Amino acid sequence: MNGLAEFTRFWIVTRHYHVKGDLYQTTNPSSIHGLYTDHDNQHGWNRYVHGGYFMLFDLQHFWLHPHAQDYLYTILKSGYDVEQRWQEQGVVNMMMLLFISSEHKMVFSQDDIQLSQGILEMVANCTSIKVHAMMIEMMIVMMLLKMVVVVIVVVMTMIVIMHNDSDDDVSDTNYNNDDSDSADDYDDSDSDDDNIYDYLIYSLRYLIG
To answer: Could you state, in chain order, the average pLDDT of each consecutive group of 10 residues for the chain (209 residues)?
Structure first.
């Protein structure tokens, strides 16, 4: 992050900005005179960078604040972030040192991170168990619904068969007293019954299968 400290010093001076954050706690001396890059790390900015893999910002009071936006825009317009490879982590951390005081900043410790990871793993395990339980419940419900449908089809088939048997008895009596035309009608009714049986049997096989 060569040049980031010098660029920040330039921005502070030209904007007449009063630093609100902990920037000068990371410089030697602890003032704007210590805001420069020392490759031996004996003086100047100590290149403090917080590991910012997970950050939450107050958009209104920090990120979208006119001073923060002006600082960020000036860096992007200069092109030094690409040329010097400052990257977003270095720039965002410098913005935190500039604009956010310690009482308005919370940094997770390693213990907090490990505790959070443990909680997340526990939640993930519980969620996995719940998902499996829900899948089993859905399978049971589907099986029960299928059994109910099969029972309904069987009962309906039996009712139709019993009804047709009673109709056959009546038809046999009438058939003996009718002419050949009525016999043709009787044959047609038998064909319709066969179609009903075939449909019910097909439906029953489909449901069971």
So the answer is: 90 95 92 88 81 75 92 93 84 91 77 62 63 75 81 77 63 52 48 60 60
Residue 197 lies in a domain: yes
Phi and psi at residue 27, to the nearest 5°: -125, 155
194, part of any domain: yes
8 Å CB contact between 33 and 13: no
Residue 88 within any structural domain of the chain: yes
- The pTM for the full model equals 0.52
In total, how many domains does the chain have?
2
Strands 44-45 and 27-28: antiparallel
DSSP 37: B
Q: Which domain holds residue 154?
A: 136-208
Integer CA distances (angstroms), 123 to 91, 98, 119, 127, 128, in order: 34, 37, 6, 6, 9
